[in-house]
Amino acid sequence: MRFLRRILPLACLWLLFSTELFSQTLKKGYLTYIHQAAELGWQEYPGVIANWKKNVSPKLLWGYD
Length: 65
Known about the structure:
With 65 residues, the protein is mainly α. The longest helix has 29 residues, at 27-55. Helices cover 78% and strands 0% of the residues. The mean pLDDT is 80. The protein is elongated, with a radius of gyration of 26 Å.
């Protein structure tokens, strides 16, 4: 029992810190994701603007139905 009382809290702390360490997103991975999302947005931008210009109705308030 005495051994279990000493080891159990240490084991719980080890599990807590080890799972927290591996669950964090690395800065490099985060920056890569942001860069890819921005590139995709810029690739789709001309089509989005062309579609908006084609479908906008300036007679209505703010140009939307």
